[in-house]
Model the fold of this input.
Amino acid sequence: MPPSATCSTTIRTSSSRSILDADDRVGAQIVEVLQHLAGSGNVRLTVPPREVELHVELEPEQLGANGLQAADVLGTLNAAYHGTVAAELKQADRSVPVAVRIAGTGADPEAVGALLLRGRDGAVTRLSAVAKITTELARSLVDHEDGLRRQIVVASPTGADQVGFARAARKAVAEKVSLPAGVYLRYGGAAEAQAAAARELLMHSAAAFVLIVLLLALAFGSSRHVLLVLLALPSTLIGGVVAVAVTGGTLTLGAMVGFVALFGMAARNTILLISHYDHLVAEEHEPWTLATSMRGAEERLTPVLLTALLTALALLPVALQLHQPGHEIEGPMAVVILGGLVSSTLVSLLLIPPLAARWLRPSAATGT
Done:
């Protein structure tokens, strides 16, 4: 899969506090498994597990003894970690706030306890003298969906085969990760979307194929004409498959769209030849021989080659950017079409004429 694409695994449980850690444990195991897969790229948890948090508990008696109020302490802590606006810089089109922060503060209780507080009488007191400062593990975010707690593992594979990586990831997770009771997985992301789009494309292509066959039968009125057109379609697979193999690609959604487009181009070339053959026999009364079929191919050579050349020139820049980010769909599609144009054009001009001379005899051409 390209760097911009992701596949994700959602781990879901009930939101009971006793099993809040279950998602984090399973998520960490899945991250470890995916990191060992080839081409996994960046693998991470989107919801952070328990993290170290600083806990400050003020002591009212000590605050009063040092002339401090809770608001004074909270203001100092806010300035230490978030800063406080001390001034504004006026510019022509906007104002830029100037924030002041105490440098060097972190989650270390000793460093935080050393913060100085100034009471109402001017006396300076350390924060540790008026508060208990501890660290503890806590959750900064609890993510839910449909009333269930979830943890999301996101992987950004570096390869182009998203579906293949998702299949390998599912297999590895199933073999190496044991799910506790109440925890289940749901897979999603670009790989699942691509698989769904591929299934939809195949269904639509099958429906379009059936409709095209019916239209060809109505147009030609001969089963031999229709079979000859359909015979030319597999020729597009030869060049397309070779082009994909040479470029080191895989059968992505873009490549599948390219094959569908090639089927239409190959069918157009064959229909163009067959229609001209019928014209030569029916209108110009040429004898139906191999010489006639070769003449028809020669007379249709220019439009067939011109169509293929213009299409190739338009797609060549896209194919050259195959492995660049942002060209994950049109790049493989252009490569497939370029390879298929070569094979389908050669088949249309070299293989179809002798086949037509043998199959489309005068009786078939005239419908008698």
